[in-house]
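Lecture 7, part B: from sequences to assemblies.

Below are the input chains for today's worked example.
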Amino acid sequence: MIVSELTERELIARIRRQLPTAPDWMLVGIGDDAAVVAPERNRDEVLTVDALVEGIHFDRAFVPPDAIGHRALAVNLSDLAAMGATPRLALLSMVLPAAFQLDDFDRLVSGFVSLAARHRLHVAGGNLTRSPGPLVLDVTVLGSVKRRQALTRSGASPGDELYVSGTLGAAAAGLEMLRAAADPTTDAAATNGASIDRYLRPEPRVRLGVLLSKNRAVTACMDLSDGLAEGVHQMAGASGVGAVVNADALPISAEARRWFDGRGIDAVAEALTAGDDYELLVAVHPRAARRFSRTIPHNEAQFTRVGTCTADGNIVIRRANEGADTEAGLPHAGYRHFR
Amino acid sequence: MIVSELTERELIARIRRQLPTAPDWMLVGIGDDAAVVAPERNRDEVLTVDALVEGIHFDRAFVPPDAIGHRALAVNLSDLAAMGATPRLALLSMVLPAAFQLDDFDRLVSGFVSLAARHRLHVAGGNLTRSPGPLVLDVTVLGSVKRRQALTRSGASPGDELYVSGTLGAAAAGLEMLRAAADPTTDAAATNGASIDRYLRPEPRVRLGVLLSKNRAVTACMDLSDGLAEGVHQMAGASGVGAVVNADALPISAEARRWFDGRGIDAVAEALTAGDDYELLVAVHPRAARRFSRTIPHNEAQFTRVGTCTADGNIVIRRANEGADTEAGLPHAGYRHFR
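Predicted structure of the full complex, as structure tokens:
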């Protein structure tokens, strides 16, 4: 059965059946012209929107429907995490090909709703429309943060240390594994494993972002949805500083390194540009470094120091090469045509 | 020049050049991972999202880019109007075909930004992505309304009178005029006029919605984006009442009536199903009818009484036919497959 055999109302009813009870601050939920919510006292609100487009951001040949729903929300939750915000509600706008399978629709919603539930995020509304084109999921999330305590990317100063949460490259390796497994001309066959799971169902650093907002040790924060290199460029640009990144310090996932090394691919270059890990990049004033490391529980995330902010405005990567350090401009995706 | 020759950053810069200065309650605007806004005291927040898809909701052959941008925002503003909310901010998510002309991009943004400025709505962020498919504009708006004074569609009682703002059918006639003019097999040629303007650049009833929320005379309110018949069904269903609609009372636009009559099309049927007028449907308790009519300035909108809520649960349309009234079930778009 395909979605266009149902009415919009029936499709909305299928979504609602998957949703938990609405919280009492949701004064008007799904079913009216708009949602009405009571704001929280003494908190600022954080809003962001991101779209996933089939054929650009995911390939339905090897990304199952629940992972599409999960990823569409994760990319937005990661933006909230970057601001230190606690998720509150989402609006889910789905642009569906007429022949989209109803079973896939249910599974997509299930992936979205499961991740939402784990972060106590409530679906307040959305939109459904058919399309002659590809599947598009456009998700808006609203979160909140204590007044004037939102993290931004613009607060770094020269001398601040740059840290990255977790590991880099696993999602990129996972995507390549899935592509290889779907390619009949290769004999690669891995369709599960930690890297693949990291690509399909990334865990946005929501709790970590909230902790960072509370402990006030970081001067700047952003997520790495465009990759570490681009992240450093953007944070440095917004903060008006330069930066040195130490290539040999990058916390590259061990599985990803083995995968890339085994194929003669430069794992450092991959880790610098990979955008699907959804880790955080933060800047920390040296005097706050001890407070920074002490207040992040180890079960939450490990941070790795990857570089330093500088006063000279240059953004470079340093790499040990046969005993001597070499420096080069950090590759920049900012010139890339828009995706 | 086409959009894919520019970087995402350059496209965002082109949007920002068209925006007015951000208000001081926008603590972090475009350019970070998310927007941060300070909420208003003693107000509830109203949120809605709507997508326009090329080939479904508009035809680029005869809808100019600025009208696409205008309409994408208007449909959302109309939802805020239905709740009695004052617009506050928008997030603009654009899914662009790679070959989309840069000039059309600028004009689309211009149509969006012009309507936003007239309603003091600020663009707080958005998303840009390319697509192998059609143009999609997905717009989220946030508005606010005095605490607990949001209008809903669920408050009507038996005996309440049903009123419609403005006139019906003009946008539908305008769309047909544009289609006819674009069709080489006809000799119709009108490409401007009041009906066409109504279709291309509808004026959502934002100020009217705010007035209705303030004067507390209406028991239910919704916009007519799915047409009057569907609106009556939805309001009656949400309120648990029946309704009688008087077909002969419908405020059909004079130009639309001439157009439909001249082509042997039933203007009443068109006025019942037309969804592009963006008028409001309200229910008013008879005792509040005088207050209702007195507090709406005549330059804002004329309301026309089109029916009454009933206790029996039936939803019917009454029509004078050779001296005798006939009653029939009100046509219902609720069974229609989703669009």
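Note for the exam: Residues 20 and 167 of chain A are 33 Å apart (CA to CA). Keep this in mind when comparing with the next example.
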